[in-house]
Structure formats: C-alpha cells, structure tokens
Specification:
Elements lengths: L4 E7 L4 E4 L5 E14 L5 E13 H10 L5 E14 L5 E14 L20 E3 L17
Parallel strand pairs: 4-6
Antiparallel strand pairs: 1-3, 1-5, 2-3, 3-4, 5-6, 6-7
C-alpha cells in the first residue's frame, strides 16, 4: 500500500510554529496549487486548491527560519486524517499533508535556502528525521 503526496505550490501564509510540551516543534501552513484548463467556451480558467501542510521536528524548525508567505516549494509527504470534537461534541475530521521533506524552489537572491539542509545542501532538500524506506533519493521523484 502507498500513501504518498507530492505537491508544488505557493505558501498562503507564513508557517505557524508552536512547541509541544515534549519540546517537539510543529509547523502548519497552507499551500496553494493551481490548475489551468479551458472551459466550454474555450476561455482559460484557473482553479486553486488549498492544502493544509504539517511539518514536525527539524522540518518545523527549518520551516520557521526559511519559509515565508509566497514561497514556491516542493513538498513530499503523506495524507493524514485527524478526528476531533467541536464545541457541541460532534465528531469532525481534518485531512492534512504530513510533510516528510520539502524543497524551496524560489530562485531569489535574498533566500537563505542554500543553508537549509546539512545532509544535501546542493539539492536544497530538507528531510524528516524518520527515514522513508521507499525514498532513498527524493530528487528522482521531481516531476520536472
């Protein structure tokens, strides 16, 4: 079975980072992906999808430093669904992408992204602390 998500999009806001009682950091942000298509009249339309992204540990720490609203990033992760209860006691579900690694795609001169990863500075890849057994080289999965 496979649970793998690959997204390339723009951050809708700066990451919201908080620290749990255990000391682990968690970062949350929204990522916009766009799809262009022609409608029935032949006019170009643009559809934007918003994805909730969650990063843990060292990924969250680095996101806090280097990710900002508007950045274009590549995110690789898995879908996760959480169950919670609203103020009326009704069960609610939230589906989000738990990021296992990401890459900043911006080519801005002021970006410090060259310093993001200690393991792979040339590719600018940031990986989660947990090894992904099916992901020896995430660059091979890039769709471009």
């Amino acid at each position: 079975m496979v649970n793998k998500v690959i997204l390339i999009g723009n951050l809708g806001r700066d990451p919201e980072v908080r620290q749990l009682e255990s000391g682990t950091k968690i970062a949350k942000f929204s990522l916009a992906t766009n799809e262009n298509y022609r409608d029935r009249n032949g006019e170009w339309q643009k559809k934007t999808e918003w994805h909730n992204i969650v990063l843990w540990g060292n990924l969250a720490e680095r996101a806090e430093k280097y990710l900002h609203k508007g950045n274009t990033i590549y995110v690789e992760g898995k879908l996760s669904t959480r169950k919670w209860q609203d103020e009326n006691g009704n069960d609610r579900y939230t589906t989000e992408v738990t990021g296992l690694n990401y890459k900043i795609l911006d080519k801005r001169e002021n970006t410090d992204s060259q310093h993001i990863s200690e393991n792979k500075p040339a590719e600018n890849i940031v990986k989660a602390a947990e090894p992904d057994i099916n992901n020896d080289d995430p660059v091979d999965d890039l769709p471009f």
